[in-house]
């Protein structure tokens, strides 16, 4: 633990320090501001940087606009059932701080967090004026769970003439050198980037992972609207089959582009995209794949059908007047699971890695982490008094990592803060 500041220490003190100024951090600040709690929001870059810096040009939300709700602030535009573009999300989110005036410090990174003798925490920061230290009775870490992009250890062994970049760095097809592109990963980012390249006329090779798929619309409504009405976004993670293991699940791929539609990898393949199983390894211009393509496509389709069947049962049980059910039939099937790809022979000049992220909490020097480096918590509340997490996928429900669920999570965390408030330790009296 870090010793309590000395009598002559002029360390800045706040009752609550919120680390991260995205939607989770701002939602926390809104609740704290409403409750009159002294706090500061520390943002390493800018409030909207995750949306401006880590999304491609054609990006759209995959959740309907009506699900964009933060505490005291909700989408009120003309298209509640549509899907905001990147620029629209940035503009919407940028309007939030003006509604309550959060005490934000941008370009101020927290480089270390430790416990303080006597209670509370010490935060070491790096800001525009250099390093500094502050103390807080409570800390809410709202930096999300996607920090370090995952890249195979063998990636540097590939032909250096092939451009490699992360999905967060992809912007548009013309950014890449002319030629074919290998996209690795078929989660939401990988599937949508592959589609973006495919629609631009680029030859795309896609290494398919185990992400499931979901229909965009079914029986007259957006599927995510059905799922919300069915209560799936509000069900606690512990109540899902497998319990906390649900936090390891990959989100379903779908798109909000051009008003929203399914992403059907089989249809892409029928239109010329080359599909493969999980990327297993590679060297120079040769890459190898596991024979998992057929099983991955079948499993994704079964999830698609299963969700539709759940909607059918809900419609019948509730007596809802809806269009009749329909059934998806595959439009393409692989003749075999390709085992290798010669990048040079196929004219592949770029690889886009879209296989996920790892959490990076090395700056948090507090013992609240599991062996996988992720924080252990119950609905954002850790075993260390005063330390909380917010904005994580499946923090409490499926909606936790979305605009839809962050308000409820922020309310809970802030209620735990205010419920445990004591006379703040504050900084010691200063001696002149």
List the topology elements.
Blueprint: E1 12-19, H1 23-34, E2 39-42, H2 49-53, E3 69-70, E4 73-74, H3 86-94, E5 104-105, E6 109-115, E7 121-127, E8 130-141, E9 148-149, E10 163-166, E11 180-184, H4 188-199, E12 204-207, E13 217-218, E14 221-222, H5 223-229, H6 265-270, E15 274-276, E16 279-283, E17 286-289, H7 293-318, E18 340-342, E19 348-353, E20 357-358, E21 364-365, E22 387-389, H8 403-419
Parallel strand pairs: 1-2, 1-8, 2-5, 6-21, 8-22, 10-19, 11-12, 11-19, 12-15
Antiparallel strand pairs: 3-4, 6-7, 7-8, 9-20, 13-14, 16-17, 17-18
Pfam families: Pyr_redox_3 (PF13738)
Keywords: Oxidoreductase
EC number: 1.-.-.-
Structural notes for this entry:
α1 (23-34) crosses α8 (403-419). This protein has helices at residues 23-34, 49-53, 86-94, 188-199, 223-229, 265-270, 293-318, 403-419; strands spanning 12-19, 39-42, 69-70, 73-74, 104-105, 109-115, 121-127, 130-141, 148-149, 163-166, 180-184, 204-207, 217-218, 221-222, 274-276, 279-283, 286-289, 340-342, 348-353, 357-358, 364-365, 387-389. Mean pLDDT is 93; it is low at 3-8 and 422-432. It is globular, with a radius of gyration of 24 Å. It has two domains: 12-147 and 359-419, FAD/NAD(P)-binding domain (3-Layer(bba) Sandwich), CATH 3.50.50; 149-353, FAD/NAD(P)-binding domain (3-Layer(bba) Sandwich). The protein contains eight helices and 22 strands. By secondary structure, it is an alpha/beta fold. Strands 1, 2, 5, 6, 7, 8, 21 and 22 form an eight-stranded mixed β-sheet that branches. A hairpin with a 2-residue loop joins β3 (69-70) and β4 (73-74).
């Amino acid at each position: 633990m870090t010793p309590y500041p000395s009598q002559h220490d002029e360390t800045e003190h706040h009752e609550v320090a919120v680390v991260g100024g995205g939607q989770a951090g701002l939602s926390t600040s809104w609740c704290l501001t409403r409750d009159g709690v002294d706090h500061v929001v520390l943002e390493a870059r800018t409030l909207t940087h995750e949306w401006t810096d880590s999304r491609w040009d054609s990006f759209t939300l995959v959740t309907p606009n009506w699900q964009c709700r933060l505490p005291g602030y909700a989408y009120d535009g003309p298209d509640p059932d549509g899907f905001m573009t990147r620029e629209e999300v940035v503009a919407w989110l940028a309007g939030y701080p003006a509604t309550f005036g959060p005490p934000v410090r941008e370009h101020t990174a927290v480089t270390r967090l430790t416990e303080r003798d006597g209670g509370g925490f010490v935060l070491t920061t790096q800001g525009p004026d250099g390093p500094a230290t502050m103390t807080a009775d409570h800390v809410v870490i709202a930096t999300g769970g996607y920090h370090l992009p995952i890249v195979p250890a063998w990636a540097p062994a590939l032909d250096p003439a092939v451009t490699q970049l992360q999905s967060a760095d992809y912007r548009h097809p013309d950014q890449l050198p002319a030629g074919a592109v290998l996209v690795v990963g078929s989660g939401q980012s990988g599937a949508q980037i592959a589609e973006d390249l495919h629609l631009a006329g680029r030859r795309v090779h896609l290494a398919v992972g185990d992400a499931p798929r979901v229909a965009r619309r079914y029986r007259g409504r957006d599927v995510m609207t059905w799922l919300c009405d069915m209560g799936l976004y509000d069900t606690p993670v512990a109540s899902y089959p497998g319990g906390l293991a649900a936090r390891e699940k990959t989100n379903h791929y779908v798109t909000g582009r051009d008003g929203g539609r399914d992403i059907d990898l089989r249809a892409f393949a029928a239109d010329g995209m080359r599909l493969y199983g999980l990327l297993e390894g590679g060297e120079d211009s040769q890459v190898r794949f596991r024979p998992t393509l057929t099983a991955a496509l079948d499993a994704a389709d079964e999830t698609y059908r299963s969700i539709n069947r759940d909607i059918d049962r809900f419609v019948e049980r509730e007596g809802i007047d809806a269009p009749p059910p329909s059934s998806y039939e595959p439009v393409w099937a692989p003749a075999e699971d390709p085992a290798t790809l010669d990048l040079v022979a196929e004219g592949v000049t770029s690889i886009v890695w879209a296989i996920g992220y790892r959490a990076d909490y090395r700056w948090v020097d507090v013992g609240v982490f599991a062996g996988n480096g992720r924080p252990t918590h119950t609905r954002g509340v850790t075993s260390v008094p005063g330390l909380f997490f917010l904005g994580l996928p499946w923090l409490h429900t499926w909606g936790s990592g979305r605009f839809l669920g962050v308000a409820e999570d922020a309310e809970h965390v802030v209620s735990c803060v205010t419920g445990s408030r004591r006379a703040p330790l504050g900084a010691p009296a200063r001696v002149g």
